[in-house]
């Protein structure tokens, strides 16, 4: 779960870069889930399963800063949704097809939240840049 770094101390830009990267992965997994929301298959084993990014906190001993990283992307264990559609070309002997168990509303919320987090980090970087420029101008 929590790791430590020992190379050079982390800067604000390192922390922000890792946060931006993590939110990008989060947004991409939600986009992938939404893209596959309407997919169906002829059996439950071949049905698309939603994916989620798993975050891990990493602490820098030199600065005490914590960063977030994507430790892995995992597949949901949600069961495929059975739909009776005897005329569908993928229907099994019972006339059933299996739909991806993607909650489109939850995925839209996930995309919105990750987008807002990304925007917050960009705003923090912009503020830090402005403060640095103001400091340089003071000399």
Automatic annotation (TrEMBL):
The gene is flgC. The keyword Signal does not apply. The basal body constitutes a major portion of the flagellar organelle and consists of four rings (L,P,S, and M) mounted on a central rod. The rod consists of about 26 subunits of FlgG in the distal portion, and FlgB, FlgC and FlgF are thought to build up the proximal portion of the rod with about 6 subunits each. Residues 102-136 form the Flagellar basal-body/hook protein C-terminal domain. Pfam families: Flg_bb_rod, Flg_bbr_C. The keyword NAD does not apply. Residues 14-37 form the Flagellar basal body rod protein N-terminal domain. InterPro entries: Flag_bb_rod_N, Flg_bb/hook_C_dom, FlgC. It is found in: Bacterial flagellum basal body. This is Flagellar basal-body rod protein FlgC. Keywords: Bacterial flagellum, Cell projection, Cilium, Flagellum. Belongs to the flagella basal body rod proteins family.
């Amino acid at each position: 779960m929590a790791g430590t770094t020992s190379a050079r101390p982390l800067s604000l830009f390192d922390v922000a870069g890792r946060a931006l990267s993590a939110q990008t992965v989060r947004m991409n997994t939600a986009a992938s889930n939404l893209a596959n929301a309407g997919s169906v298959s002829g059996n439950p084993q071949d049905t698309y399963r939603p994916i989620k990014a798993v975050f891990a906190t990493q602490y820098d001993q030199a600065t005490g800063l914590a960063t977030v990283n994507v430790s892995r992307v995992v597949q949901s264990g949600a069961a495929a949704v059975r739909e009776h559609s005897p005329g569908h070309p993928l229907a099994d002997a019972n006339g059933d097809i299996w739909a991806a168990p993607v909650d489109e509303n939850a995925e839209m919320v996930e995309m919105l939240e990750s987008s807002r987090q990304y925007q917050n980090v960009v705003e923090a970087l912009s503020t830090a840049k402005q403060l640095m420029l103001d400091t340089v101008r003071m000399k």
